[in-house]
Amino acid sequence: MNKIVGAILAEFSKDNGIEALPEEDRFEYLTSYLTIRRHFSRALNLKDIVVGKGGDTGLDAIAIIVNGALMTDVDQVQEMLEQNGYIEATFIFVQAERSSSFDGAKIGTIGNGVEDFFRDVPQMTRNDDVQEAAEIKAAIYARAPSFRRLPNCHIYYVTTGKWTDAADLVARRNIETAKLAAPEMFDVSFTTYGADDIMRLHTSAKNAVVRTFTWDQKVKIPSISGVHLAYLGYLPAKDFVEIISDDAHDGIVGGVFYDNVRDWQDYNEVNSGIRDTVLSEKKARFVLMNNGVTIIARGFKQVGDTLTIENFQIVNGCQTSNVLFDHRDKIKDSAIQVPLRLIWTNDDNVFDSVVTGTNQQTELTPEQIYARTEFAKRLEKHFESYPEPVRLHYERRDGQYDRVAVGEKGRIVSPQNLIKVFAAMILEEPHVAAKSYKALRLRVGKEFFLEADKRDPYFLAALAAYRLEVQLRTKPLRVYKSARYHMLLAMRLLMDPLPLPHMNSKEMEKRCVTMIATLSDDVKANALIQKAKGVIDKVSGGDLSRDNVRTIPQRIRS
Q1: Residue 264: CB partners within 8 Å, gap ≥ 6?
Q2: How far is CA 354 from CA 227, 313, 349, in A?
Q3: Tens of pLDDT along 100-128?
Q4: Weakest mean pLDDT among 182-186, 525-529, 541-545
């Protein structure tokens, strides 16, 4: 293996706690993470994307994204539809080989595997992971009338070699792409990556995004508390597109819209109007007709009119950015100017107020509102207060730990996951956690995650979930994935079977501290998980199918 790729693999393995796995498996995790990261900016749980050995249909990883969320359960598809009123789906398939060369036969194998995945009646044997992904796929296409556009299908074939555009390999890739595109079920791309691409993708994922550009049409905004510097002005569209383009110039740099409350809305009436202006003879009026873009940068340098921004976010202007990027080849020599507001600040309160103020026309989701509360900020610090062996990291903002050394990435807890595991373990609602995240999300700030709540129950649920997830990666417990929320309830009842007191009480704090102590001990935690497994075996009768598991919460307590 290329020495640099080997070093990247070693670092990645340590960060994700997979050092004990064979090199082949670890390489699959690395390449799957790097490629899927191009399309999904939030924290990734590797076990949710890498499919098991045997019956994998020639694929190492499958990721399905709907409306910006990674689908891990078939019921999430309907939740996304109800939440947004439409479906925008992306399918990602990855095959990784440590080989120093690309193989035409392997390209065919990958194409066959993807083709079979989309068949209603597969010809290939599917393992549980592939079957679960296929069920999610079926749920998506069952809601085809709600598609905003055709789904995207991205295929990646990664080796440690170098892609040289050899005629026979390019032809084989084109054949497979055309074959997959023929049914017109999705828009397909087939990308081949070598060692140089692995290094580039790793650098992009690891390091803060830095862009340098010249901006002479600007005015400085007078001093504002909490703001280091701010400018208003306009920038040539071609220069703005350079700022948002990734290193390969074939996509928008990952994560730049983390804190924009709206994702790309495709070519709806408004965005079609922006496109028509860009492509019309009236394009010079764009600067007068468009509300422009707001960029907040955490790092900033300036030499005359040459500016360097680092770790920046586009908090308003996602739609404008996507339209301009889509038509980048047509605006290279145009007179289009983009209204631009650039703010350099490291003050979270300023950041929050700008995000909210520039998006007042859009209703914020409960999670986005919650992330800005004092309780959420205190919860984040509470998680960090625990000693290193059990410390977890609460990801109040999507992607906030992407470029921070936190050790094992599996210790990062997203708000969405915390809501689910808290409901399962503390509220005793594992069936709701497994089936209806939307129902829980709407209760945030009303029934739980309240300012007066003790923070220990939330950490307790997160720690129990982390301990359990580590065990679910092992082959003996892998089949219990469908019952993970019910296992969390069983674990809590085994430690403390009495009804829990009010969330704001000293008694709740005291009892949670005792349970956290149990989960902090490796031996005791693993023994507890084995006992919880026994409980699930008993109440499920050995039937771990999704439908059966969701009917057993009351039987766990009894």
Answers
A1: 257, 318, 319, 322
A2: 11, 11, 9
A3: 999 999 999 999 999 999 999 999 999 88
A4: 541-545
Angstrom distance (rounded) from CA 390 to CA 462: 10
Q: How many CA atoms lie within 13 A of 521 on its CB side?
A: 9
Write out the two tokens for 422: 């808290």
CA distance 443 to 423: 11
The model's pLDDT over 207-246, given as tens digits with 9 standing for 90+, comes to 667 899 999 999 999 989 889 899 999 999 999 999 998 7
3-state helix, strand, coil in the chain (%, to 5): 50, 15, 35
pTM given for the model:
0.67
Structure tokens at 500: 């829990």
Place of tokens 């399918």: 91
SS3 state of residue 194 = coil
85 conformational bin, left if phi > 0, alpha if psi -120 to 50, beta if neither = left
Phi, psi (5° rounding) for residue 241? Answer: -60, -35
Backbone angles phi, psi at 494, to 5 degrees: -70, -35
Contact in structure between 519 and 528 (CB atoms under 8 Å) = yes
Instruction: Give the burial class of 337: count Cβ atoms within 10 A of its Cβ; 0-12 exposed, 13-18 middle, 19 or more buried.
Output: buried
Q: Which residues are CB-neighbours of 173 under 8 A, at least 6 positions away?
A: 107, 190, 192
What span, in angstroms and rounded, lies between the C-alpha atoms of 159 and 447? 50
